Amino acid sequence: MELRDVTRDLFLFAATFRERLNQGSLPPVQTLYHEAKVLFDRMDQVVVSNPALSARYGKIKYGLVALIDEIIVSSTWSEGPNWPVLELEFYATNIAGNHCYELIKSLTPADVDLIEAWFYILALGFRGELAFEEARWEETLLRLYRQLPQRIDQNDIKLSPEAYHVVARKARRLDPLFSLWRSVILFFAFLVMLIVFYQVVWVSMVDDVKEKSDEVMLQIRDKKLLEELKEIKQ
Question: Transmembrane stretches, by residue range (predicted)?
């Protein structure tokens, strides 16, 4: 098992938050908080028997906590201001805004799994102290991307204009950034496919349970009917 396997569900939670918000399908804040806590508890349990993996997870958990806190608190969700900050509960601190970037600066080329995780943390919405410094945040994201071991080769691809918020600025070389955003888009596409898969599996499971439940109910009714007929005959 690798670090990406441990963090997959947490990243899925983060990636689907905005969609759930737009669809009006978010539960009460305490219920959502419980969902997040369950994910962290599950990750903690998964790595407990693997010291090496546990150590790697321990180095990225702070960033995962910061990601969840920020995307919820900074969202337009009416219950966002009532979110019980995970960082306060887990670490008794409130310094994620700048501390996360200190952790990113401490990464070495050997920290491939951590670099990948931090790339996703930023790509999924964490900005911290760079919330109003687009250029610096973009530069940090690009630096992480350049350190990824398997970057996607550039091919001719046309992106929808609606995909980005375009800011007028001086012309510059776009190839690296183009590749970066394409990587982010493909990452989200993968998440959408994963969500659809989960929905299909879930619907199938629900239908199966419903079918079996209906069969049981019919059997119960048949037994009751048989008993009633026996009583009538007697």
Answer: 179-201
